[in-house]
Prior knowledge:
Chain A has 480 residues and is α/β, with parallel strands linked by helices. Chain A contains 16 helices and 13 strands. Chain A has a single domain, classed as Amidase signature (AS) enzymes (Alpha-Beta Complex), CATH 3.90.1300.
Amino acid sequence: MWMNKSITEIHSALVKKKVTPIELVEECISLSEKDKCNCFEACCFDQARKQAKEIKEIKEEEILKGIPFFAKDNFSTLGVETTASSNILNGYIPIFDASVITKLKNAGMILMGKTTMDELAMGGNGTTSHKGVSTNPYDHKRIIGGSSCGSAGVVSTGIVPFALGSDTGDSVRKPASHAGLVGFKPTWGRVSRYGLLSFATSLDTVSYFTRNVLDASYILSYISGYDNKDMSSSTRKKEKYQDYVLKKKTFKKIGYFKEVYNSITNKQIKEAFDNLLSSLKGKGYIVSEYDYPKELLYALYPTYMIISCAEANSNNACLDGIKYGPGVENATSWVEYMTKARTKGFSELIKRRFVIGSFSLLSQNQEEMFTRAQKARRLIVNELNKFFDEHDYLLLPAAYSLPPKISELDTKWSSKPDFLDNILTLGNFGGNPSITLPLTFINNMPLGVNVTGRIFEDGYVFSLASEIEKITKLSNLVKE
Amino acid sequence: MELESIIGIEIHVQLKTKTKMFSRAPSTFGEESNTQILPVDIALPGSLPVVNKEAVILAIKICSALNMEIAHTLYFDRKNYFYPDLPKGYQITQQFNPIGKNGKIELNLDSGEKLICTIDNAHLEEDTAKQLHLDNMSFINYNRAGIPLLEIVSNPDLHSGEEAMKYVETIREIVTYLNASDGKMEDGSLRCDINISLKEKGSKKMGTKCEIKNLNSIQNIKDAVDFEIERQKKIILSSNKVESETRRYDEKLKQTVLLRKKTSAVDYKYFREPNIVPIDLDDELIYDAIHTMNKLPSQYRVELSKLGLNNYEINELLREQDITIYYDELIKRGADYKILWNFLLGDIKAYLNKNESRIDSLKFSKNSLVTFVSLVKENKINSKQAKEILEEMLTSGKKPDVIISEKGIEQINSSSEIEKIVDVVINENENAINEYKNGKDHAFSYLVGQVMKLSKGKANPNIAKELLISKIGDYFKK
Lengths: 480, 478
């Protein structure tokens, strides 16, 4: 068994020829066939076998070469059906690879296929895919969380050591908490979004799951950098992010939000968090409480909903059934054609988001809704930057309760949302690098902690996360 | 009630770039359907727009020629609406921060008067796909989708068909002279929408406007606008209300016809395009764009008018940029402006048109033409000979002096040689001389003709005339 090991362990076995890429691929395929979490969309096993067989030699410095991985179904993959788990894209086979897929393939990684997700990445529970609900391997009655549910599933059940996801609100960092994984969201612009199906452009970030922090840092070294196909990708120099972990380059000042801390009702979470803080103090970190404005914490949810729904409504306007996806029979006009395609293609939850997005952009509402949400976003980020003037890291629990039971989920929207559920959106508003990693187990369910840093200080985020990993001793977790 | 018409024009200029506004697909016209496309042109999921620098540079040149303020930071916005020709479900445009603002151009009206038309803004955007409807099927050609457009929006400063026509003509001249667009209305590389309303003269209250689309020639603009003004006038004068409509011009009927009623305005839900972060245009890029601009028609006008060409001659010349540039070059090499104009716009242009060739394919050198013009100017050849020589130059490319010696058609400029011929003519044409004396002018022409005939067309006609006059004087003194 190799696939339940870390990237670095598999790599050294490959270099020493203890295992071959084709053996890894075959193991991955047989594990995939036993999936109980509903992780998969289209797979490309034959293509993977072919690629694996072509690999003759793996050098010491080729860390990722020969290792299988999966990608969330919202990455465009050449020749492999890509639906974003929505019926409107059933049968759509892309003619190009997303830039991040190209980079991983160039590094020698082997794409095994696509993982299921909340439809069009909208949703946090992993329950709205056109393929149904994804479950948590630690307790199949509970959600694994979304929207990157299938990718969380394949890494946590030991099918692959790494899977691509995307994070617009907390779509990688929340499921990472529920599944005992490392979930990393880089700085916005650090990794090209070309080929990632847009949900909310200004928040969307190519993100991923691994089972330890060092693996996550290696991956960023391979996938970051400017891409001339994505104007929002940064021209900043690439770094060797693993050096921050290996050489322990770290900052010292950690802060957490008083308002958030005081709202933690689960005693075990509070205790685990307190223990972590004192261990960090013991290691010489300076830990302090910070008074982040409460009204801005309450503004997180409405601000997120309006901005993300508005952008999503426009970004998904291309899905009209004309150019790709299942067409429509017997339409007598283009209006009827598009209406039928979209009515049939999207679930009710998606339509609700589109309506909100569209409503908030209408000229009579735009000032009061969309423009106001953007102003709120600016305030939220300004205050976050003030925090980062005094601190190097924001440390908070990644979840404040166990993942809900599927039978108890409610799709109605709460009129009084709990800001604890939306705290991770801070990192998307500011574009900050942010990582979730395991903190503790409660009733045999994993629960994560989150570290957020200043933009483009992704390396320093890895280094603190690596320190935390040593304290919690929770890494390389696999639930088979 | 005296009515006044108020006209504003939106012009969409397709920019002549190698690739599209937001993709590297070629923006070639007339290729096979759906072959000039990349993922972003058909909005394949995950594709992203990348701004074409060449389009930005061309836009800066046009804005500069239209005397606009040029933005130093580029922003793009989304205009959201559903339509089959709009692959993304939105058009990327510049709603809030156009690349150019507050421009103006001078129009030269036929009366000789000049009119200033101010321009609100010019903004970059992308073209839509082209639809084709056959029987019960519709086809979409995405080759056009994403071709860069600069939309130039005038203020309502125009008042007649002629003014509207001159405005579009002037803009067309500018964009083609800048080599920024083909500017062909018939191909759709320059399209205009014209808004027309009527109001009571002196009143501030604006009337209901109609928009005219699908105008495919400069002349149609004038005809359509004049028709529309009359149509609205009739409605108002019969105490009815003009309805807000989109109309098109029907060339056969020579009238504007209803395309659709304008109901409540579409809400385009504009917002900033989040895939394109604001782009700072550095001063050097703007400076370089402006300082590599071709000479504009307005600059030529001033210079040509100083040379002594009249308005008609200037307009005829400016019609074609390559001919204008050629003319300009020959003037610099010392050719006579008037003689050059006559031959260039006459025999040479006719030859080019007949052979469907361009001026840069002329067989003779520029210096040959300069020599030719000075031969004419110095009366070394007469007009008949000139035509003969030029024709030979056009077909063979030979130098004029070579042609002259080969054909032996050199002019006789020696007074003594011509005098001999004149003497013969005078001796043999007593009747004509008497008629001339009695005031019959044609008799003199006849005498000149006789001199030319005897000299086989080689005598310098001016010298011949002078000699005739003095010899006839001598004749009567005898």
